[in-house]
Amino acid sequence: MGLRIAIDFADRGAKVIVACPYPDEGTSAIKTVNDKTGSENVIYKYLDLASLESVRSFAADIMDTEDRLDILVNNAGVGVIGDFLTKDGLHIIMQVNYFGHFLLTLLLLPLLKKTGKPLEPSRIVNTSSIYHNIGKIDFKNLNKTNYWYKFQIYAHSKLALVLFARELTCRLRGSKDTHVVINSVDPGAVGTNIFYSFGPIRGAIIKFLFYNMFKTPWEGAQTAIHVAMDKKAGEVSGEFFKNCKQASAHWNAYNETVAKQLWEESVRLVTMSDEELNRCFLDL
Hints:
Layout: H1 2-11, E1 16-20, H2 23-37, E2 42-46, H3 52-65, E3 71-74, H4 92-115, E4 122-127, H5 151-172, E5 180-186, H6 200-213, H7 217-229, E6 240-242, E7 245-247, H8 256-269, H9 274-280
Parallel strand pairs: 1-2, 3-4, 4-5, 5-6
Antiparallel strand pairs: 6-7
Helix pairs in contact: 1-2, 1-7, 3-4, 4-5, 5-8
């Protein structure tokens, strides 16, 4: 879906930065976008969400080289690729799908704030999932391994993204003259390569079924594009979208106490100091 989103943005004349941990895949994506749109204003930058060091390096590079950031799409995600902790002590699925995006968003927030204007806010789009409905935030086991049903960890990460959007919205409301909105999207059941995390054979079967019976990656990308571009979607923050319409997330996503506690625990786990966190909310 990320490739389809990049093509759409480039076709509208935007400068697009494609970020991923695989240089060959990133280079291939740039070529595809160029071929599809004719745009030469598309670049690849290395980003490994499974490494907090990589996230910080990427964010620092963007802050140093870019003078504006209109849209941040937190689309990267993995399925059940393993059941282990990264070198940062976080579960691999939770770190790639949630903690990495959490840290990246906060580090880029000053640039988003600088860019946003009245009636033209900067936008953050979190790609959640229909599976957020079965997610749960258990603070004692946020990075637990040896789940009997490992796909549950994926569900937890997608619920966390929605809670993050709602809590960041609350905190931005307290910032003077801030024009940044953040919303979450459920792309629906989409046939993408994420299913290969279930194994090559099983994954290929699941992808085939989803691709032919449900949404294609292009179709799955449309809600994220809508939230990034639609005027009315830019007038709300902390909300949930599905099929290009504002919808209701699972009731667990509206627990303000859990959202606040998840924020505080996430700040601790990604090792942000109070000083660093405060800088994220300052104007450039």
